[in-house]
Amino acid sequence: MQLLAVGLNHTTAPVSLREKVAFRADQLGRAVASACAWFGESGQQSHETAILSTCNRTEIYGASANDGQIETAIDATAHFVADYHKLPYAELRPYLYALPQDDAVRHAFRVASGLDSMVLGEPQILGQMKDAVRQAEAAGGLGTYLHQMFQRTFAVAKEVRTTTEIGAHSVSMAAASVRLSERIFDKLADQHVLFIGAGEMIELCATHFAAHHPKTLTIANRTVERAEQLANRLGGKTMRLAELPDQLANFDIVISCTASSLPIIGLGMVERAIKARRRKPMVMVDLAVPRDIESEVSRMNDVFLYTVDDLGTAVQIGMENRQSAVAQAEAIIETRVQGFMNWLDSRAIVPLIQSLQESSEQMRQTELERARKLLARGEDVEAVLEALSKGLTAKFLHGPQQALHQADADERARLAQWLPQLFRTKR
User: Is residue 343 part of a domain?
Assistant: First the structure.
């Protein structure tokens, strides 16, 4: 069985490309089904598929019976992503990494444990991976191999987080957003903060900002009910997303993270807001992929726009304190990778075991039928049982004996070494 992880992330591709290949959360199930169909048409037998897509990465995990055809599998995966997102294959392929077999397993373990994140040790990725796996399973993308790999992935992530301090010093995107805002405004308690969206990332950011008691905290979302739930919990207010063009000027800090496929804040909207603010600076943090805020906004003098890539440079504090935890985590992961690969190797002999069982059952049925016929003719029971046992023994030993007789000297020596272990006999 060939395992493979193909994708791109914050270290291999810029946000301008990552946003083009991101799969929306509500599309993952359909995307998995499309991928399975695609790989089936390209000759990838018994293909299992799961897709992980976040602001920092898009990865496709697969398991296929096409052993030894790694390049074919990589090429098919790259073509699927390019075709699904209507991108030129040549534009996408240079940014993709491909990790086969134990490298794919190791990568999944590291991602879930927070070792491959922009923010070392961040915990959100584990929940995102669990959601991706649930959707892949619901879409029929998981089989024996990916199911087992992801179950072990979650167990490894739990072990890493409970036995090391990998998360003790972690810096989240939410905390980084607060620190970036504090660089521009001395006291967040004097600022008006707007959050656009009501998902997990916005909830985390809003919780961090609420701890600094801003002057006002407002949630804008297409679904007002979700915005109200979050606002009530944090003591904030809500507004409709349609009010954004008229209300943007009232906010000093804007944090946006929606699932929109197109920007919801354009350059013209921000220019009008800054003019109404009389050039008072504004901090804007765009955590969405694809981006919520047009990139041209970053060229404005009075606007400090940060994307998920910009946050990467703001989350390095405490890295030295984590290095010992990283070493411990890597050691745990390496041990668990070897354990999974041993399981995978053991699965390779399952067809052989099934064949032996079927062959043995056929021998048993043949001898049993012969014994029944003898008993039906009135033969002595003891004699029939004796013949049955000898017949079974002869059939089981026929293959090994024939192999010994037909083998050359070297092969016979190897068989002589293994047969006693297989039949548990003393030499």
Answer: yes
Please write the tens of the pLDDT for every residue from 33-65: 999 888 877 666 558 999 999 888 999 999 887
Name which of 197, 175, 204, 172 is nearest 188 in CA terms. Answer: 175
The strand pairing partners of 61, in sequence order, are 5, 50
Q: Among all chains, which residue has been given the structure tokens 């067809």?
A: 351
Under 8 Å between Cβ of 89 and 16? no
User: pLDDT tens-digit profile of 80-121?
Assistant: 999 999 999 999 999 999 999 999 999 999 999 989 987 777
Is 178 in the same domain as 165? no
Q: Are 89 and 78 in contact (CB under 8 A)?
A: yes
User: Do 156 and 213 sit in the same domain of this protein?
Assistant: no
Q: The domain that contains 72 carries what CATH number? A: 3.30.460.30
Among candidate residues 147, 120, 248, 119, the one with its CA nearest the CA of residue 193: 248
Q: Are residues 54 and 33 in the same domain?
A: yes
Residues 224 and 199 occupy one common structural domain:
yes
In a domain, 164, yes or no: yes
pLDDT (tens digit, 9 = 90+) per residue, 178-219? Answer: 888 988 998 899 999 999 998 888 988 998 899 899 999 999
Domain boundaries, position 81: 2-169+321-348
Give the up-direction half-sphere exposure of residue 367: CA atoms within 13 A in the CB hemisphere: 19
Known catalytic residue: 36? Answer: no
- Is the Cβ–Cβ distance between 218 and 197 less than 8 Å? no
Assess contact for 254 and 264: CB atoms under 8 A.
Answer: no
What is the DSSP code string of 202-261? HHHHHHHHHTT--SEEEEEESSHHHHHHHHHHHT-EEEEGGGHHHHGGG-SEEEE----S
Catalytic residue of the set 36, 55, 205, 257:
55
DSSP letter string, 396-413: HHHHHHHHHHHS-HHHHH
d(CA 14, CA 10): 7
β-strand 237-240 against 216-221: which pairing, if any?
parallel
Residue 244 forms part of a structural domain: yes
